[in-house]
Amino acid sequence: MNIVTGCALTALLTLGTCTSELRPAPPPNDTFIVFCSDRESGVFRLFRMDADGRNARALIPDRSKPVAEHRNPSVSPDGRRVVFERIDSAGASLCVFDLGSADEPTVVADSAGASQPAWSPDGTRVAYRHATGGIHVCAIDGTEHVRLSPASAQDRWPQWSPDGTRLAFSSIRDGRENLWVMDANGSNRTRVTNTDARDSRPSWSENGQALTFHSTSKDSGKHDSILRIGVDGRGRSDVHGGSSLRDAYVDRNLASWGARVRKDSVILFQSLRTGNAEIYRMNADGSNVTQLTSDNAQDDMACWAQ
Fold first, then answer.
1. Cβ contacts of residue 50 below 8 Å, gap of 6+?
2. Residue 33: inside a domain, yes or no?
3. How far apart (Å, rounded) are the C-alpha atoms in residues 254 and 256?
4. What is the tally of structural domains in the chain?
């Protein structure tokens, strides 16, 4: 069983991009999507739906009062479990939930602020942003916590390379948020972008040689775009952007979706173009936009799974 994970892109797309003749080929029948929605409880909770947006249902019953919030899911490589942020009155913790079980989620990191988890390609580890601001890694059973970067660097949004040997992340270590890459043990930190824009939420290409990411300009319009750049810092180019875009979240682990399921990568993202937050997908070049959800709730942070 193969898996693709991804955290969604949030974008305000121009109208008229999505037509029936431009719809991408449907994913395999056993592919589904895990996402976050406030449609039932008024706070973000984990849901799943079919790859075409049908049959959405809540994943985890919550017996806590008030209801805990769920954010930033990342699905295991075998497609059986999901790690996510659980936020309640005590703070944020990372939890793992068995997608085929009714059991309560298991806490793997409870540092009252652990966030932005990313499951490793070999299924044994989770990289995450520590409450203090650095990137940490732990075993999936919650043991062997290792700090990879200092809190002072304000590193965030870690994402594993397809072969698991490197991590891409964004950092505000020099006062501006740019993309960096380091080895999986925290060594050989290398800057990838160096601009006045805010570059964040990187995702690897299937060959491990490029990153897709979200960039916010610093001009008065706060223009947002989905961009791509080589890991060597060359070839910065636009995938989908312009004055009408904002708050884009790049599909996490886009590499696995392209390499294991289709020859062309598919990005999940959230759009406000209808006036409400809904989940869409598009090809990696920005074409073939397809709306997947349509309701009055806020739908976000979607992940491919198979």
1. 32, 33
2. no
3. 6
4. 1
235 is a domain residue = yes
Residue partners of 98: CB distance under 8 A and separation at least 6: 80, 81
pLDDT tens profile 233-273: 999 887 765 434 443 444 443 333 322 323 346 777 777 77
Distance, CA of 211 to CA of 180 (rounded, Å): 10
Beta bridge partners of 147: 136
Q: Which run of H or of E encompasses 11?
A: strand 9-11
* 111 part of a folded domain: yes
Q: Residue 192 domain-assigned? A: yes
Indicate the Cα dihedral angle 284, 289, 291, 292, nearest 10°: -30
What pLDDT sits at residue 169? Answer: 95
State residue 290's pLDDT score: 87
Measured between alpha carbons, how far is 2 from 227 in angstroms, rounded to an integer? 27
Is pLDDT above 90 for 22?
no
The mean pLDDT of 33-40, rounded to a whole number, is 91
214: domain CATH number is 2.120.10.30
**Model's pTM, two decimal places?**
0.80
